[in-house]
Every structure is written in structure tokens, then in C-alpha cells.
Amino acid sequence: MLQGIIINCISNLYKVELENNTIYTCIPRGKLKQEGLIPVVGDYVEIEIDSEEKKTGSIEKVLERKNYIKRPKMANLTQIILVLSMKMPKPDLLLLDKQLAFLEFLKIKPVICLNKIDLVKQEEIEEIEKIYSNIGYDVIKTEAKAGKIEFIKEKLKGNITAFAGNSGVGKSTLINSIFASNITEEGLISIKNKKGKNTTTNITLYKIDKDTYVADTPGFSTFEINEIESNNLDRYFKEFNNYLTKCEY
């Protein structure tokens, strides 16, 4: 059998890319469903080829996952870039804090990306940057529309990276800038309420080079962390680490 990585899934059809860059459209064997294992984008799998001419096959086995995230449904991520818009929509720091805690729980490296920095004053950018860099997180700044994304490109090398954040913060625009092509449909901003309209409806891994992929994922406005036991939540806020033994609560 051949090994590859799932780069896209629509309904029950999976696009699997092999090491030689050949892509096969595959369906999972029934035994996987019986085992309660549903393949997701990012899974490394073993496939059998059904038709070389039509480039179709069957997923026979899902290899062991390094990690799994339910929303968006992905596996084996090495990092997630949390995109925060400085304006239109305004920064949602509560969502960002939830995301950071959840990624600590999942043991996936977060990178904070402050986008649309051209729309606000420098002091506003520095205020947010200082808060999170002092905690110990990587913070980078971009202007996706202007193509000023050099810092983000450096972070992608050798990683399987997903972008997360509210709709309209610029995730799809960043990916299009990385590839210098409109490979994803850019989100629109509602003039009436300045909130993003979700345009990305499925997850796709885009290959930059060997072992380097980026994913475009559906935008979302909430981020649930109910997988974490409430009495363990404090462990996943890095800034609390030095005070855990001193807090009576």
C-alpha cells in the first residue's frame, strides 16, 4: 500500500497526496467507520489504488495522529496561526485567549498574527503585541492586502499550519498573498455591521514545498474549550504558571 496525506475532503471523497505529488480521490473503507475512525484533513493514510487512469483509490488505514482538533476538523498540525484583525472587525482578545488556552491543551504551537496594522495607530498595535510577547508567544505583524507578509512566510517552513480567527480577519487574503494567487475566495466585510461573512466552506491543505502545507479553514466566531476540565483550565494559561501553587482557588 502507498502512504499519503489527506489534503481535502468533501462529503465522503478524500484527496490524498502521495510523496511523488500525485493526488488520488479516495473513499474510506467501511471498516474505518466500524472502528469509529473518520479520516480528516491532515491525516496520514495508507491507500490502495483502484484506478491508475482515473486516479482513484481507497483509504485502508489512518496512521497514528500526533494531535486532533475538532474545529476545524484536522489532524497532525504542527502550528496554528491565530489571525487577529486590528480593525474591521476589531480585535477579539477574548477569543484569542480561548484559542491560546486550547492550543496549550492540544500541545500545538500558536503564532499570533496581527493583521491590517495599516488601519490603526502604532500605539494600538504595540499594546497588544506587548501583552502577548511578554507572556512568551510569537507575535508577527502583517498587511495582507498590501502583500507585506514576509514574517509569516518564515514561520511556515517545515510546518503543517492552519489559520484560525474570526471571519473577515484576513485568513484567506494571507494565504492568497503567500501563493501570489487567488487560490481561496477572499471573505467580504459587511459594510453595515463590519463583521466578516464566512466564505470558506471546507478545509484544504495547500502545499508550498516538501513537508510545508498551509490550510484554509472555515471562519468562526466562537471557540469552545469545553474539552478542558474546568478545574484544569488554569494550567493552560501560560501567564499563570508561576502562581498556580500560590492561588487558593
Describe it for me?
- The relative contact order is 0.15.
- By secondary structure, the protein is α/β, with parallel strands linked by helices.
- 20% of the residues lie in helices and 32% in strands.
- The protein is built from 5 helices and 15 strands.
- The termini are far apart.
Key terms for this structure?
249 residues; alpha/beta; six-stranded mixed beta sheet; five-stranded mixed barrel; 15 strands
Whole-Å distance between the termini? 54 Å
What's the helical proportion of residues? 10-25%
Q: Which strand order do you get reading across the main beta sheet?
A: 10-9-8-11-15-14
Number of helices: 5
**Mean pLDDT rating:** 84
Biggest sheet: strands, sense, closure? 6 strands, mixed
- Give the number of DSSP strands: 15
Strand pairing plus helix content: what structural class?
alpha/beta
Radius of gyration based on Cα positions: 19 Å
Portion in strands = 25-35%
- Large-scale geometry: globular
H/E series: EEEHEEEEEHEHEHEHEEEE
User: Poorly predicted ranges (pLDDT <50, ≥5 residues)?
Assistant: 186-201
